[in-house]
Amino acid sequence: MNSLDWAVLIGYFGVMVAIGVWSHKRVDNVSDFFTAGGKMPWWLSGISHHMSGYSAVMFTGYAGIAYTYGVTSFVTWSFPIALGIAIGARLFAPRINRLRSRLHVASPLEYLKNRYNLPTQQALAWSGMLLKIVDVGAKWAAIATLLAVFTGVSLNQGILVTGVITAIYCTIGGLWADALTELGQFVIQLLAGIAMFVAVVVELGPHGGFFGVWDEPELAGHGKPLVGPYGTVFLLAFLFIKLFEYNGGMLNQAQRYMATADAKEAARSAKLSAVLWLVWPVVLFFPMWMSPLLVDAKKPDGSDAYALMTEQLLPHGLLGLVIVGFFSHTMAMCSSDANAIAAVFTRDVAPAFSARARAWTERKGLIAARLTTVVFLGLSMAVATQVDSPTFKDIITVVIKWVAGLMGPIAIPMMLGLLRAFRKSGPTAALTSWAAGLFAFYLVNYPIDDAISGGVALQYQVSIPLAVSLVLYVVVGYVKPEDTPERDALIERINTDDDGSEGAVAPAPSPRRGDAVAP
């Protein structure tokens, strides 16, 4: 990097902070901070939903998969995300929006207290927050790894810089700041991604051009959709995981649906995000697929290939723009996660333990939300310094094994609890599936993995916890049905179309003092 690249990077940070300050004027209460008051246009929500699913892990961990295996990086990652969101546009997005518009909640988990009970809500809230701390920690480590390649700063320095800048704008402006910065970040990564795509295509001339390049020996097997540890079982498991995760199971994407005016707008938002996930990653991944022809990765997993290729192919100024693109992905995801976790803590966790928290005024609730955001970011930055430790091993291990493996047990009770078909599954089914899924994750990743020669295959490490949770949630619900008139009425309120027919639905019970939802 030279002075021009640094100017681009510093200018980007300045704009992000300025957007946060401007967004501060639009935040008057907790609803504005967490769900934009339900005033976000569908197209902004869709772009925000799309951007909040990326991070620099794509340019490190997934760049390594693309470098080693080729197009399977798209087939087993962004394609199932696109398909999952497309399904969720009909199945989950409208219902999640009605949590805000009809039940007046600011956090998706607020609904779970009345849908199940307080212990279930707390189990999912605490486990979801802890998993998110680890997940975001991996994202900080990924962007710091890239920054180290370009600038030579240490891992910890890179984590500190990106974390502090993100904390400033998302703490000041809430979800509005997240969405508006993500819009700007989308434009930046659009320019950066196209610049990198064109630069690589130009370099392919001596290798047979855009179509003939696939015959090169360095790309042997790169055109196969499922190779290595990323087989059919992994793809199917990832589709189910991403169906739950990217439609609200990891909380931050749920807020984008809640932020739109109504259920139809939420569905349009999801459809836009699905299209972006299907098309745009191809542009980003293509240079990564070609990277074995252009650079020799220094790391065994190839995670530095994209950064090395960027340095080699792009002139200064454009290099700075691509680096800003790396930051835009990571900061978009981490800020949205921070906002979601702050919502969970201030709306779900703190009121369950403190009478004072249940009596917070709008002003005190807003202060608590901002303080929680800062604390969450600080904890995730601390975890980021340990990503390469023996516990976590490396960035892609955290993202695939830990996050994907633990997502099912946490998300299944929340997401399926929105649907009429699973109304018989109550607190017993939810807690049993959650606990058994977590225990299955522990078994296949540690005792069993250590006992088997060669270890448990990755596809089973991520699929078994999901399968255990899904089966138990359904089976226990039928063996021990816990549907009640109150729960059925609550489910009906979020399952009725916006056609005026909701008046025929029995009203949900009035909440007691301290309850999570208000009809």
TrEMBL record:
Membrane topology: Multi-pass membrane protein
Example GO molecular function: symporter activity
GO biological process assignments: sodium ion transport
Family matches, as CDD domains: SLC5sbd_u1
Record InterPro entries: Na/Glc_symporter_sf (IPR038377), Na/solute_symporter (IPR001734), Sodium:Solute_Symporter_SSF (IPR051163)
Protein name: Na+:solute symporter
Membrane-spanning parts: 6-22, 42-68, 74-93, 159-179, 186-206, 226-244, 274-293, 313-332, 366-387, 399-419, 431-448, 460-479
One Pfam assignment: SSF
GO cellular component annotations of the record: plasma membrane
Origin organism lineage: Bacteria, Bacillati, Actinomycetota, Actinomycetes, Kitasatosporales
Record's subcellular location: Cell membrane
Keyword hit for Ion transport: yes
Assigned keywords, A-Z: Cell membrane, Ion transport, Membrane, Sodium, Sodium transport, Transmembrane, Transmembrane helix, Transport
Region (Disordered): 493-519
Entry similarity comment: Belongs to the sodium:solute symporter (SSF) (TC 2.A.21) family.
